[in-house]
Amino acid sequence: MFSNNLPAPFLGTVRVLPNFPEQLAGLEDLAYNIWWAWNPSARALFRHIHEPTWNRCEGNPIRFINSVHQSDLQKAAKDPEVAALYDQVMTQFNDYMSGRNSWYKKQGGNRKGELTAYFSAEYGLHESLPIYSGGLGILAGDHLKAASDLGLPFIAVGLLYREGYFIQDIDPDGQQRAIYKRMDWNDLAVRPAVNAAGEEVTVRVQLAARDVTARVWKVQVGRIPLYLLDSDVPENSDTDRRITARLYGGDHEMRVQQEILLGVGGLRALRLMDYEPSVFHMNEGHSVFLGLERLREFIHEHGLAFREALEIVRGTTLFTTHTPVPAGNDAFSPQLMEKYFRTYWESIGISRAKFLSLGLDAMPDGSQLFSLTVLALNLAAMANGVSELHGHVSRAMWQHVWPDVPADENPIQHITNGIHTRTWLSIDMQDLFDKYFDKDWRERVEDKSVWAKVDNIPDEELWATMTKMRADMVDFLHKRLTRQHQRFGDSPEQIQEWAGVFNKNALTIGFARRFATYKRATLIFRDKERLKKILNAPDRPVQIIFAGKAHPADQPGQALIRDIQALSKEEGFRGRILFLENYDMNVARRLVSGVDVWLNNPRRPYEASGTSGMKVPINGGINCSILDGWWEEAYRENPESGWALGDNSRVYDDKDQEIQNAADAETIYMTLESQLVPLFYSRDEHGIARGWLRKVRESMKTVGPLFSMSRMVEQYAEMFYFPGANRCELLTANRFERALKNAAWRDRLRGAWPSIRIAAHLEKNNGDGFTVRVREKVEVVAEVDLGSIDPNDVSVEIYVAPLEQDLVSSNFRGGTIPMRPDGKNEQGCHVYRGSLLEGDSGKYGYTVRVVPRHPDLVHPNEMGLMAWAHNTI
Hints:
- The longest helix has 44 residues, at 709-752.
- The chain starts with 26 loop residues before the first helix and ends in a 5-residue tail after the last strand.
- The chain is built from 30 helices and 29 strands.
């Protein structure tokens, strides 16, 4: 930085920005739209204007337009090549922003009232805006990009963290240091949000006994506005200014404050900008307090009773749960909740007990905490996990919210995660696709026929492209390692050694993700000598790159990083193992485009989905993974798309962790030794691994379309957003007439439900049970005392499930058969009949149950009411 010898300091600073020549007049709007993050031609434009400045600004367009000299802009404006590229990019950009040909428009969408508001604590849009920590934020960022591509009516809300998530430094001993740097908003793609009158928007929220103010910023993500709240404003105390300082920083009290600001403040910000969303999507439980604020709005502003307001809020709210790991599900003491919400429950006229009942959850030690996940499930009638397996796990994990409902029938559904293809696909691979795919492939990445064109790419070109991408990644690693060891104070000779440590032609395995203990980063080192033989086989070298951050409070996670750093210096591992510091979106893009294999070995079933492995196949890499999260679905779809580790037929208890570790490590070694390494090094006379490329193609064709973010967001729209918007219109019409009626119906049903009695029997019973042949009908008769309940308000069903283990572990876990009414018996009980018809031999149990029935139920079992037969009336 320039220094001077003035006898007194400067009084202040003045930022001087360039004037854009008429030929480049749209450059500022382009820079302030994150659209450039997934459009290489836009980034190429900035680079062509002045490459030295672009490189110095590390790919950040805002820093670039703030830093480029006026003379360089003037010179670029007269350059025919720059002018042509500018015209091309701006034509693409303006056409995109018009939304004329979007998926939503093609679906006939343009209805007023279909706006969805998406709330998330973090967003991973680009490394220049570091308000993300890992997978949750990356998924949220990809969600916004795909919603933009599809043209959905969509807005998003989050927090703008002044220090973001930490920068990771690794010292020579492998100790992680968390470094926080204060960001300058002038260098970020954020602008003050304004209301219809053009005034900057600020919101106020109550935190315990004080009011806190937050400024609202806007980030434009293609067609989607993202609004971020910032408490670092002069109106607040120094303590309150730090509420939005750090992502996932501070104690429980800080977390509650952040989450109130996100949920309550975020909703108030939208109201100040005249937004009236029909559907609210909570990405994890961090934003759940927005549901409480919506209840307050309906009660105070529209005069509804609590139960009536809840009918609307629940019917128009979606909650996505992302983790079965307890640390990922926030829970706070009742005393802390009382500190921050006592005035809230008093203001809406409900008791402390009523408020706490919305979220109280029993802990293993017998205590009770207020769970934001339980609160979310009580405030959202729409809920989902993020993979098929995670849907099963979540339904079992939260079954106690609906204790009378079998786990696999409770309202938690699933939509498997995806990735925003154009964000994560390397430029080299995009160029190759442009050559051999259909012209519009970028708009149809969820279409299997698009990816089938992978077979049109000659082996020679695909292999050459993958080899170049690996070499580029190794060059990047060497530069990063050089800087890291310069910081260590290594000698020039030592630094030179590190600058060439990795082989550009060796089989390269990547393991990069958050360093949580359940992900088992060091599992592959269980038998070190065996691993050394694999890595150092003559003529078949293998190298492994590790990267990832452990939360600053996660000491076991940080210990794993130290272990790997120490191992990387051991004889036999040196030059074959390395840990790359400060894993962010930039590092992730480099790794997923350069590695040959992506290793993933979490403790099943703790990986809810995982998305890093989805980014590798589109770039020519292959997954080698435990059958957990998304990979179980991908491998089932096509076993030729990669390698499966472990045994998915068994879920180990915590006490069996060592058994599981030993079994999974053995599978890793065997897979490397007998399949993976030999296939990669099986070359023809041209040096090409044809068999490897066959697997690469299968991986691309399977993962590319099935796990695209476009597919995922289309599913969210069709399963939740569009039905939720229709429900909002229905429930709020005619001064909330339908909501009031539905709330009264629920009250009547809940009040009368305990009086239901059911007795059932087989019409012909030969004593102890009943024996029939496959597909032979068995008539079941039920006598049901409904008390005061109208028979039209319920359904009566036979429930049947296999009782033998081999049947339980098959696809059939249980099912229902509707029963038909058949008048009343002499005692006045309703009689129902139904037929069992088994399609396979074995021993089955049956019973009869009564469930609520109403056309406005979002899910048949959302009320948690289910009466079961006890054969006594």
